[in-house]
Amino acid sequence: MITIAGAGLAGLASALELARSGASVRVYEAGPEIGACSAARFAGGMLAPWCERENAEEEVITLGAAATDWWAEITPVTRHGTLVVAAPRDQAELARFARRTTGFRNVDGARIGNLEPDLAGRFSRGLFFESEAHLNPRRALRDLARAAQAQGVEILLGTRSPDRVDLDCRGINAPLPDLRPVRGEMAILQCPEIAIGRTIRLLHPRIPLYLVPRGEGVFMIGGTMIESSSRRAVSLRSLSELLGAAFTIHPGFAEASVLETGAGLRPAFPDNLPRLVQRGGILHLNGLYRHGFLLAPAMAVRVARHFFPETSHANHSECETL
């Protein structure tokens, strides 16, 4: 029996891959339901390795390359790509983004209007990352839990983990040195009058923000990255920036209803890359940062390889010992 602390994104993905490798798995989750205490609850759910390369290491693309297909076996995935745009005053940001990324093609205003009719005439230039995708994070977590249970994984909700487990996936609550919280804030808007079918990234010199459609006129907007451990509600400054970005993308969002705001603490190491860490006889999977849905599948496979090296080409140097 392999025991796991935490039924968030890392814990559930690892449980599924371990079960697929033939293990008996038990997951302890302190929260009352799947996703209730997970930072992934406030994620954008973007499967966008080429866009993320703008400010991330090449390893993010390598690890995230197969994420879309992995998730598509578990939960609905929208494969409409990512459209990156900028306001007229921020065109230099668009050029900078293009220099730092790959996997896109340049699109003019007419093409933007073809891709997203509601954005016709709004932007003169953009970058279209056709191979990227997105999913609904909360549904994906629930579907992931069901997939794990279908493989025989036991998930104990409302149950704190014992002091000794085999795998710790508790995110920012894990006792690891160098782990820091990066606060991310978001708002969920309802605006049935606007039809946008793909992720829109709006570039800005200070905070590039993104708008992700959830279907039926519901959108999530986020993108803030604040070095803070505060668990307070969304600040007025951040909310103003989020809503202002939505208005810049389309002025019709001025009439949107704000269904929800939220903030989550995303665990990150100094290099903002995930790690497998062995500490005190416990393996830790942590540091998914803002790339959780993109990197969790590959990291979960590494967890399975760690426990079952005889069935894979495991690279034990991937696991650090503290």
Describe the structure.
This protein has 322 residues and is an alpha/beta fold. It has 2 domains: 2-64 and 135-178 and 270-321, FAD/NAD(P)-binding domain, CATH 3.50.50; 82-130 and 180-267, D-Amino Acid Oxidase, Chain A, domain 2 (2-Layer Sandwich), CATH 3.30.9. The chain has 9 helices and 18 strands. It has helices spanning 9-20, 49-52, 58-64, 67-72, 91-100, 109-115, 137-150, 236-249, 292-307; strands spanning 2-5, 25-29, 46-47, 82-86, 105-108, 125-129, 133-134, 154-157, 167-168, 180-190, 199-203, 209-215, 218-222, 226-227, 257-268, 275-279, 282-286, 319-321. The strands form 3 sheets. Strands 4, 5, 6, 10, 11, 12, 13, 14 and 15 form a 9-stranded mixed beta sheet that branches. Strands 8-2-1-9-17-16-18 form a 7-stranded mixed beta sheet, covered by helices on one side. Helix 1 (9-20) crosses helix 9. The longest helix is centred in the last third of the chain and has 16 residues, at 292-307. Residues 313-317 have low confidence and may be disordered.
